[in-house]
Amino acid sequence: MALTIGLTGGIASGKSTVANMLKEWNIPVVDADKIAREVVNVGEEAYVRIVETFGKDILQENGEIDRPKLGALIFQDEEKRKQLNAIVHPVVRKKMLDERDKILKKKPVVVLDIPLLFESNLTHFVDKIIVVYVDEAIQLERLMKRNGFSQEDALARIRSQMPLSEKKACADVVIDNNGTIDQTRQQLLAILSEWDVL
Ligand SMILES: CC(C)(COP(=O)(O)OP(=O)(O)OC[C@H]1O[C@@H](n2cnc3c(N)ncnc32)[C@H](O)[C@@H]1O)[C@@H](O)C(=O)NCCC(=O)NCCS
Ligand SMILES: Nc1ncnc2c1ncn2[C@@H]1O[C@H](COP(=O)(O)OP(=O)(O)OP(=O)(O)O)[C@@H](O)[C@H]1O
């Protein structure tokens, strides 16, 4: 029987780290962040609407969207974030579900890696939910390190999402990613074997 697993968590909680493990084991993963980047390529409908809404100031010289600049804008301002979400999310959702359907024609299981699974009310599209959890102090530290953000910028991003503790409470299963990568891999293996996926 077909199984759609939702993989979610908070910003920098370790979703991509877990998704990479799944891909190594040949489990197909649909990456919402990757699709969200593709749908705003120069000339795409969402690109045109973003430029109309936020102006040419958010573009690089070559015409592509300046992601750090747009990020700085929308993570400081909830109204602007809602405007961006309203442009990008419907297109991402459609592409993601198309990819899911294509994969499920050939494979019994697919994982949808969706950072905003709960915030965007997408839980009805998945059968099981894995939340990748970290304590906020570690999340902050990893986010600042990975993106070179100040503490203030990193906190603005964390605060723009549903608290990770709430997501944890809504999960079918939680991966605690406070420890080593290997400890995370062991937890994932146990979940997959329990669900007969490996
Ligand atoms: C604001 C943008 C340009 C910043 O780009 P940047 O390359 O710096 O970050 P990236 O796209 O890799 O996202 C990193 C993480 O930020 C978080 N995040 C991104 N967008 C949002 C949002 N609208 N609300 C809350 N968190 C978000 C997610 O945890 C995501 O995994 C970009 O994130 C964007 O276009 N966001 C809107 C689309 C979106 O919601 N994407 C996320 C899920 S589909
Ligand atoms: N167990 C771990 N130990 C040490 N570092 C880790 C661990 N897990 C992830 N990291 C590092 O933390 C950072 C965030 O992890 P990752 O990119 O997987 O998170 P994410 O949830 O996909 O983030 P985003 O929502 O921003 O896409 C990365 O730099 C990653 O290498």
Automatic annotation (TrEMBL):
PROSITE patterns: DPCK (PS51219). One of its GO terms (cellular component) is cytoplasm. Its EC number is 2.7.1.24. ATP binds at residues 12-17. The keyword ATP-binding applies. It comes from the Bacteria. The keyword DNA damage does not apply. It is found in: Cytoplasm. InterPro entries: Depp_CoAkinase, P-loop_NTPase. Keywords: ATP-binding, Coenzyme A biosynthesis, Cytoplasm, Kinase, Nucleotide-binding, Plasmid, Transferase. GO terms for molecular function: ATP binding; dephospho-CoA kinase activity. It is an enzyme of class 2 (transferase). GO terms for biological process: coenzyme A biosynthetic process. Pathway: Cofactor biosynthesis; coenzyme A biosynthesis; CoA from (R)-pantothenate: step 5/5. Belongs to the CoaE family. NCBIfam families: dephospho-CoA kinase. Catalyzes the phosphorylation of the 3'-hydroxyl group of dephosphocoenzyme A to form coenzyme A. This is Dephospho-CoA kinase. It comes from Anoxybacteroides amylolyticum.
